[in-house]
Amino acid sequence: MPTEVAVAPNGDFYVADGYGSDYIIQYNHQGQYIRHFGGHNNANPDHNLNNAHGVAVDLRQPNNPKLICTSREDNAFKFFTLDGNYLETVQLPGAYVCRPVINGDNIFAGVCWSKSRETGKRFDNSGFVTILDKNNRVVSNPGGTQPEYKNGQLEQLFQDGNTFYHGHDVCVDEDHNLYVCQWNANRTYPVKLERV
Fold this sequence. Notes:
Blueprint: E1 4-7, E2 13-16, E3 23-27, E4 33-38, E5 55-58, E6 66-71, E7 76-80, E8 86-91, E9 96-97, E10 101-103, E11 106-115, E12 122-123, E13 128-132, E14 138-140, E15 149-150, E16 153-154, E17 167-172, E18 178-182, E19 191-193
Antiparallel strand pairs: 1-2, 2-3, 3-4, 5-6, 6-7, 7-8, 9-11, 10-11, 11-12, 11-13, 13-14, 15-16, 17-18, 18-19
């Protein structure tokens, strides 16, 4: 049950089986299978993906391309080489992120659910947008709480108000305005956030 596809400069493409096996499956430009990685029950749990909802080819460092893979139930993005070797995890506590969207040096993502301050559990009709900088640190959360780092660790993120219901995707235009698509949000149109 695939949820996303990303294409590398050489034409290879990566399919995120986000509602199925949680594998990222790599094919060449002719559609021939190359490999798969992620999934569950790897010897090193860092290699596991849990609701691999999105995948993007990260060319922010042109000489060091990477894949960004969503591990939504872990509230994280995981980074891999283009041949599927694990590199690092960027924890986003409280943010059930969807696909990563790269624009310039930043990563944008819709957050489909937030956690409740009272119960610490995911709750419906919640969500926000998260924005990471070139160092993969959260710098802004429209519709969510301001990011705070203590001892290098990101503190828990929460929805702030009722701006978004299930942020599911973000598009960035040439003026750096954001268009936020929502899932299960009473058929609302995408929300435009103008850069100020």
